[in-house]
Design brief:
Dihydrodipicolinate Reductase, domain 2, 6-stranded parallel beta sheet, Rossmann fold, alpha/beta, single chain
C-alpha cells in the first residue's frame, strides 16, 4: 500500500462521483481523502467509507494530507486556486474542463506544471473516445484527402427549464453557460482532430432558459490554410437523452460523419489497405474500441483516468490532454466571447 499513488478528489458532485468510482478500481491508486463544501456529502462518505478522510475546505486537505495526485471536480472558477496549491505541494493534477475560465491563467498553470515536470491533464474526454481516435487516424492517413471544411456540434438537455440565476451554471464568472460547458468539448475536438483555428467570426449566442448566460452558440472557425468550419452547440435540446458530440468533415477525397458511437465514411475511391470501399462505409464503436477494466458512462471516462495514472507511473511518456491543450481551447472560447461582444450584438 505504501507504494500506491495517494490521491484525493475535490468536489463530489456528478463528475466527482463518476471519477471516484473509476479511479477506485485502479490497482496502483489509493483514495486518501475527498473534499466537498456540503457537509451532508462528506458526512455520508465518512459514515459508509470511514477509511477515507473528508474535508469541506480544500485548504485543510493540502495542510493535512500527503498526496501524490488530485482530481478537481469543482465549479471551474475554483480550478485555478486549487491547482496553484497542488503546484506548491508538487502534486499531479487531473482537472475537469474547461480547466479555468481564463486563457491567461491556464497558460500560467501550464508553464508552472511543465517546469516542475508534474503530470497535468484536463477532462476533455472525447480525446479518449475510440471513435474520435479512429477519426484522427483516418485524417492523419489522408483517407479523405485534404480537409476542406467541417462542422462540430454538441447537444445536451442540461438546462430545460427557466433558471433563476442561483447556481454556478448560470454565472459566466463561475464557468457557467453553454460556451464553457458545451462548446468547450466541441472546440477541443476540433483542436484535436484538425488543429486550432486561426480566427473566429460570426459568433451568435442565444438564451433559451438561462437568465444570465447563453444556452446555444454558433460560430464560424477559419484557418490560414483555407480550411473553414462551423460550431453549433445547444445545451437546452430536449431531443437528446445524453450529451452528444457530432463531427462532419468534408475532404477532397471523401467525407466523415462521426459521433461517440460510430463513423460513416464516404469514399470517392476504395482504399483496400484500410478496408474501405468506394461509397459509404460504416464503422461502429464495437469495431474499434479497446476494453477497459471498469465501465461507467463510456470507455473513454475510464481510459482518460487510467492514462493520467500511467503518466504518473511513467508507463505513458506523453499526456494526451494537457493544461497546454486546454489553454488552446480557452483561447478559442475567449475569441467567441470577444467576437460576439464586438460583432454579434444588434
Amino acid at each position: 500500500m505504501s507504494n500506491k499513488i495517494k490521491l484525493a478528489i475535490i468536489g463530489i458532485g456528478r463528475m466527482g462521483i463518476t471519477h471516484y468510482s473509476i479511479i477506485n478500481t485502479h490497482p496502483a491508486v489509493i483514495i486518501k481523502a475527498v473534499v466537498d463544501s456540503s457537509s451532508l456529502v462528506t458526512n455520508l462518505i465518512h459514515k459508509y467509507i470511514n477509511t477515507i478522510h473528508t474535508y469541506t475546505d480544500y485548504n485543510d486537505l493540502f495542510e493535512n494530507e500527503n498526496l501524490d495526485a488530485i482530481i478537481i471536480c469543482t465549479p471551474p472558477t475554483l480550478h485555478y486556486p486549487i491547482a496553484i496549491k497542488a503546484y506548491e505541494k508538487e502534486i499531479h493534477v487531473f482537472s475537469e474542463k474547461p480547466f479555468t475560465t481564463k486563457k491567461k491563467k491556464a497558460e500560467e498553470l501550464a508553464e508552472l506544471f511543465e517546469q516542475k515536470h508534474l503530470v497535468n491533464q484536463v477532462g476533455y474526454v472525447n480525446r479518449f473516445n475510440d471513435i474520435f481516435k479512429a477519426v484522427k487516424r483516418y485524417i492523419n492517413k489522408g483517407i479523405i484527402g485534404n480537409v476542406i471544411n467541417f462542422k462540430s456540434e454538441m447537444y445536451s438537455r442540461t438546462i430545460t427549464k427557466s433558471e433563476e440565476g442561483k447556481t454556478w451554471r448560470d454565472s459566466r464568472e463561475n464557468g457557467g453557460g453553454a460556451v464553457f460547458e458545451v462548446a468547450s468539448h466541441a472546440i477541443d475536438l476540433v483542436n484535436f482532430l484538425i488543429g486550432k483555428p486561426d480566427k473566429v467570426t460570426g459568433s451568435c449566442m442565444t438564451s433559451i432558459f438561462s437568465k444570465n448566460v447563453e444556452d446555444a452558440v454558433n460560430a464560424t472557425l477559419l484557418y490560414k490554410n483555407g480550411i473553414s468550419g462551423t460550431l453549433n452547440v445547444n445545451w437546452s435540446d430536449e431531443s437528446f437523452r445524453k450529451p452528444t458530440n457530432k463531427i462532419e468533415i468534408f475532404g477532397s477525397q471523401g467525407k466523415i460523419l462521426a459521433d461517440q458511437h460510430g463513423i460513416k465514411i464516404f469514399m470517392k475511391k476504395k482504399s483496400p489497405e484500410n478496408n474501405l470501399r468506394e461509397g459509404w462505409n460504416t464503422i461502429y464503436i464495437t469495431d474499434v474500441f479497446k476494453p477497459v477494466p471498469f465501465y461507467v458512462r463510456g470507455n473513454e471516462f475510464t481510459a482518460q483516468l487510467y492514462h493520467f495514472i500511467d503518466c504518473i507511473t511513467g508507463k505513458e511518456k506523453r499526456n494526451s490532454c494537457t493544461f497546454r491543450d486546454a489553454a488552446a481551447t480557452l483561447e478559442i472560447l475567449e475569441a467567441i466571447f470577444n467576437d460576439y461582444e464586438l460583432n454579434g450584438k444588434f
